[in-house]
Amino acid sequence: MAKFAKIIVVECGHLSKIAISGGDLLTKPMIPYLINNYQLEIIIPQIAKTHWQDHKNLKIIKIPSIFLENYVNPFTVFLIYIYRSFFILYVIYKIKRPYYLYSTTNVFVDILSPFIIKMFSKEVKWIGRIHHLVESPHQRPGRFLVNLASFIIDRLTQKLLKFSDLIIILNQKLKAELIKRGFPEAKIEILPPGVDFAYIKSIKPTPQTKSFEALFIGRIHPTKGVLDLIPIWKKVIAKIPNARLAIIGEGAIGDLISKLNKQISENHLQKSISILGFVPKNELISILKNSRVFLFTDHEAGFGLAMLEAMAAGLPVVGYDLGILGSVIKSGYIKIPKYNYHLFALAVIKILASRKLQKELSQEAQNEACKFDWQQITQKFNRLISSLQFSQDHI
Fold first, then answer.
1. How far apart are CA 220 and CA 254, in angstroms?
2. Residue 356: CA count within 13 A, CB half-sphere
3. How far is CA 323 from CA 155, 167, 309, in A?
4. What CATH number does residue 218 fall under?
């Protein structure tokens, strides 16, 4: 690898000024460790600029906003992504080669333009990232036609990603599934996220910090399992009436928040479940440290960075079996078959009813989280990129 080789980062799936995307969460912490070895440029939408403005040595190329970003729905999202894809293609085409091209997610807006550039240039090494695969619309919660479109687009991006030079994923189960779908095994590398353990350790709750028995943290979306929380928590308070759950996150499209509030009301859970929306990072860590268990109800996640941060803060996890708990995460959790609300609730009750068990799992969770250090993760990322050699004619 030539010293100060260039990496062009594509991170363009943002639809909110507030919500931080998975691509952000997996890329931003690596920047301080990459900046001394590479020329880094990142392409982002204008609405995402606040997430990246603290990186002074990083060249940021912003995609101008369009009016459709004020009217987000599945159809306008598609149009927004098409517009951004053309802009990305225009920007990347003008950049002097050779360089590495890094798609931070498998959302099609981060894939389409890199694929086109790769097809027409041998001087580009394309690194793709797959967070998770979209389930069949018959299995996925939410509107069928929207899920069908998401499924078809996801299958298309998978076909495009087969032309990349390297594919980075988050767990062994996903690797096995990709190989089954025809991805070359030699191209696939597992690279989990990291956690800033020192930062989390430094945050101390204040007397004003809210406390809860359980927390859910994530995007408010059917595939995150937010609606699963209602039947689960109803079973929990049947045994522990004063137990309180906080739902933290934003990003809901359409009527999901209304549906969530309606189900909370219909099940008489208004005093037991609080929807907090977006919470700033320091406050979020404080709330984590003031709570007792983390609920991981994702239906199709590749990892779960919020879960890892919760573990670093000392929370044991009760979560669905998606190939993460027991494979990537080795301890500090209780694993539940997907959609089994009864067993999920029993596991939560078991932890809340036993301070001894909670303390044991809490210590295991913190010990496990310590293994995921961002500096070590970035070193592996650097080794993976360095293995993609350019021809001497292109250096």
1. 11
2. 0
3. 21, 18, 18
4. 3.40.50.2000
Instruction: For residue 346, give the nearest of 268, 213, 240 by alpha carbon.
Output: 240
The residue whose two tokens read 């929807």 is 275
| pTM listed for this prediction | 0.81
Q: Which residues pair with 245 in a beta bridge?
A: 214, 273
Q: By CB neighbour count within 10 A (0-12 exposed, 13-18 middle, 19+ buried), where does 112 fall?
A: buried
Q: Whole domain around residue 58: which residue ranges?
A: 5-194+374-390
State percent of the chain over pLDDT 70: 97
Same domain, 364 and 379: no
Q: Does residue 11 sit in the same domain as residue 146?
A: yes
Distance, in Å, from the CA atom of 356 to the CA atom of 219, rounded to the nearest integer, reads 32
Q: Is 395 contained in some domain? A: no
Q: Are 43 and 63 in contact (CB under 8 A)?
A: yes
- Evaluate whether residue 333 is within a structural domain: yes
Tokens representing 152 are 């078809």
Domain shared by 239 and 354, yes or no: yes
pLDDT in tens, 46-89: 999 888 877 777 899 999 999 999 888 889 999 999 999 999 99
**Are 273 and 346 part of one and the same domain?**
yes
